[in-house]
Amino acid sequence: MPELPEVETVVRGLRKQLPGRTIVSVHLEKTDFIDDPRAVGEMAPGRRIVAVERLGKFIRIPLEPGGSGNRSEAPANLIVHLGMTGRLAVRPPQEPVLPHTHAFFHLDDGSELRYTDIRRFGQMMLLPEEGLAALCEKLGADPLDISADEFCRRLGTRKARIKALLLDQGVLRGVGNIYADESLWRARIHPARIGARLSKAELLHLRTALQRILRKAIDQRGSSISSFLDAEGKPGGYQKWHQAYQRTGHPCPRCGTTIRRAIFAGRSSHFCPRCQPAPRGVRRRAARKRKR
DNA sequence: AGCTCTTCCTGAAAGC
DNA sequence: TGCTTTCAGGAAGAGC
Question: Catalytic site residues of A?
Fold first, then answer.
């Protein structure tokens, strides 16, 4: 599932191919994941791609104003969220089309930008500058840039569980289940702890762990779980480094205790019950549950 | 404010 | 063997 490192990997790949290209035409198959399919189909053709950027887990492809005349004067941004199974890649037109490919952007050099998404949990939209500003406002800080002070303020003052806070895109943009679990394991913090009850040292440790893990994962071109492939169709390598995520029943690499799985904030969470001691209240409930 | 549950969707894997 | 059920999860919305 694409999270910050996977999206960053895709963005870096697309950045080598897309800027400077002009969208010649658009072909859409299934459109239920697109906000306004007609707008995408009509506004994108004739416009030149300026850049490729990452906004949390969103991919932003700004398009130059102008294009083929008529109503396409205002700047627009093609925004793509990969959801669970989304893939965005530039392919030669003769390359066989993968099943579940729903959007084709024909480019002026003959290649195609293709969007493939088995489960269609992804999103696609064409946003004017105001819409983009509104989206950015909803998103929290980028975890790679956030200062220690802001991290403590955003997470250390909230009464929600730390796992929920890490996953909340309005708090931090880009963290998903894999990197939430991995950073909590590394910082030795139980996922059910309340943000406001974490010590300053724990918060600082968590920020450092999260940043190191995200940077390393980007170096490894992301984690390939449930068939994530980058813009060039290559798998990432960070899944080899997972210490807790999806390692239920395996020994904790630090202390040997069996990694456990439980649902917190509606998400399956993987943690070491010894390294990451549970807060009061959770301990009793966890005792009578034993899955997998 | 923040929790849980449900919905969207498909394919893999487990269960019978 | 082959069918049915369960699960996975990002995000949004409902209801508590």
Answer: 2-3, 57, 267
